[in-house]
Specification:
Aspartate Aminotransferase, domain 1, seven-stranded mixed β-sheet, four-stranded antiparallel β-sheet, 13 strands, globular, binds pyridoxal-5'-phosphate
């Protein structure tokens, strides 16, 4: 009997993450039993789960200050507020990113100015320098979309020359490295997400990390600290809060002890998960390499990419062909997202779909996105399943 490459099907789920570890379930149950879920609801002398998580994440990153919050998007908007962004300000950001990034810019009434995308799916550094000069913007919200990071040394050089403060969106690089440092350690502020589809899972959640005491103090007050900022795990001294405590609004977005309890064991095992993602990502890459129709995304070998998703390019195909290809793969159980579609679909959208941000002309990004396909690689997949998925993609790409 022939094992037909043209009919094999994949039956797994692209959105099924691993279960929450037993240790985290136990820690969460403890919090539920004592009932002190609010981060400031502590017994005398008690070190709450949220404060401990902040300390552990700051140790992990090597960042001075860490604030745990309700979401990655909240961390991004809070970073902008703490940097003193005003309504109407122009904020440079990637044209290729996810909706919460321009959303965070819109949340503070600022205006995104999109920067072009390279074939490596990173921000185009020439366009960045040009747009910084053209707009006089003072903030770059740099999204490490799908784990791809530019040459961070060069980027920081350009940002320094242009007087840009950099906020790094590390929703897809938590656990990754760039230029020998943990992702997020180059800019002034870094933001992370612990939403279910990212690299640690508390349903919703996020972090803001910085070495700047003023930004940390403002962000903490913004998150709704009710002058209880001495109960933080990795915050600045009380003195840093003095200039801001009476002038900073409360825009509640605190993390709670239940989520923190779920996250602490996952932080401890993050390096292990990053290693397991690398195995899956490498298997997919090996299986799709040397297929003439498929172009893999170049990446700097010195960069530690978290392989929680996989991207590839099918250049020079028509829109109809791509729509068809995605449908054929889907009929065989392979869930691909095409970034070139005209309308936003599920999590997949692009700068064209964010009408509130105004109309922009981004021919370089259009060219890349027209051929860009994307899939999740949850840790519930095995290497053999990655190979099966790759076989299906290869057979349909030839069709
Ligand atoms: C998920 C995501 C965010 C924000 O995360 P939430 O926690 O869902 O608000 C930011 N940037 C990117 C690229 C993301 O994928």
């Amino acid at each position: 009997m022939k094992d037909d490459a043209a009919t094999k099907k994949f039956t797994g789920s692209f959105t099924q993450q691993e279960p929450i570890p037993e240790e985290a379930i136990h820690a969460a149950t403890e919090v539920l039993r004592h009932g002190r879920l609010h981060r400031y609801n502590l017994n005398p002398g008690e070190d709450g789960e949220t404060a401990q998580l902040e300390r552990e994440f700051s140790d992990y990153l090597g960042a001075q200050y860490v604030l745990a919050v309700t979401s990655g998007g909240y961390a991004l908007a809070t970073a902008l507020r703490a940097l003193g962004v005003h309504p109407g300000d122009k904020i440079l950001t990637n044209a290729f990113t996810l909706a919460p990034v321009p959303g965070a810019i819109a949340a503070v009434g600022a205006q995104p100015v999109f920067v072009e995308t390279t074939e490596a799916l990173t921000i185009d550094l020439n366009d960045l320098a040009a747009k910084a000069a053209e707009t006089g913007a003072t903030v770059l919200m740099l999204s490490h979309m799908r784990g791809h990071q530019p040459d961070m040394d060069r980027l920081m050089q350009i940002a320094g020359d242009a007087g840009l403060k950099v906020v790094e969106d590390c929703a897809h690089t938590m656990g990754g490295m760039a230029s020998g440092e943990r992702s997020g350690r180059h800019g002034t502020v870094a933001c992370y997400s612990t939403q279910t589809y990212k690299h640690m899972n508390s349903g919703e959640g996020g972090f803001l990390a910085t070495d700047d005491a003023d930004i940390a103090a403002k962000a903490t007050l913004l998150s709704g600290s009710y002058m209880l900022y001495d109960r933080h795990g990795a915050g600045p001294d009380a003195q840093a809060f003095e200039p801001y405590r009476d002038t900073t609004p409360n825009v509640s977005g605190r993390m709670d002890n239940l989520r923190a309890a779920i996250l602490r064991p996952q932080l401890a095992s993050l390096p292990d998960r990053v290693a397991r993602w690398a195995v899956l990502h490498d298997a997919m890459e090996a299986a799709l390499r040397d297929v003439p129709a498929i172009r893999l995304i170049e990446r700097d070998p010195a960069l530690v990419r978290v392989g929680s998703s996989f991207q590839f390019l099918l250049p020079r195909k028509s829109g109809d062909w791509m729509t068809n290809f995605v449908a054929r793969c889907a009929s065989r159980g392979v869930e691909l997202k095409w970034f070139g579609a005209a309308r936003a679909k599920g999590f997949t959208s692009s700068y064209k779909n964010w009408a509130y941000a105004g109309a922009h002309n981004m021919p370089g990004t259009d060219r890349v996105l027209a051929g860009l396909l994307d899939m999740r690689l949850p840790l519930t997949f095995s290497v053999d399943e990655c190979k099966l998925i790759a076989d299906i993609i290869v057979s349909e790409a030839k069709a």
